[in-house]
Design goal:
Shape: globular
CATH superfamily: Protein of unknown function DUF192
Helix content: 10-25%
CATH architecture: Sandwich
Distance between the termini: 58 Å
Largest sheet: 7 strands, mixed
Number of helices: 4
Amino acid sequence: MRILKFKFLLIFFIFNFSSSKASDFALVSSNNFKDLIVKTAIDLDSKKKGLMGLKKLKNYNGILFIYDNPKKVNIWMHNTFIPLDIIFVDKNKIITSIKRGVPLSKKILSSNDMSIAVLELPSGCAQKLKIMKGDTLSWSLKKLSQIKNNGYFHCLN
């Protein structure tokens, strides 16, 4: 019986670990661009960490925070070294505001409206990609193996 419980627990942990890592990335698109590769922050730990501690992005262009339900979102740049464009998205996937994140700032940047997602890109990417308030974003969650050979990094070029 103990072995059966152990096997069940082992399978449970393996399944949960693999499913939580199943969509570490997303391809984000709009009318002006497609397949922008970003990391995802879906669970609480990845949302807490965000892009903190990174001095440079490699092989992806930013991070997409995804929330289960629309909420007022507060972001800060504490321990974040990369200047950011912070793009708030409502439940209809419409951009409601774009704010500038200053590295290492402890100032809270809040969504103007209830948000279902927040896209963080290096400062200047929103302008380069012609992302504006009122635009619609779409995204699809992907495994790294599904986008590995894409090599299309808008903001890194």
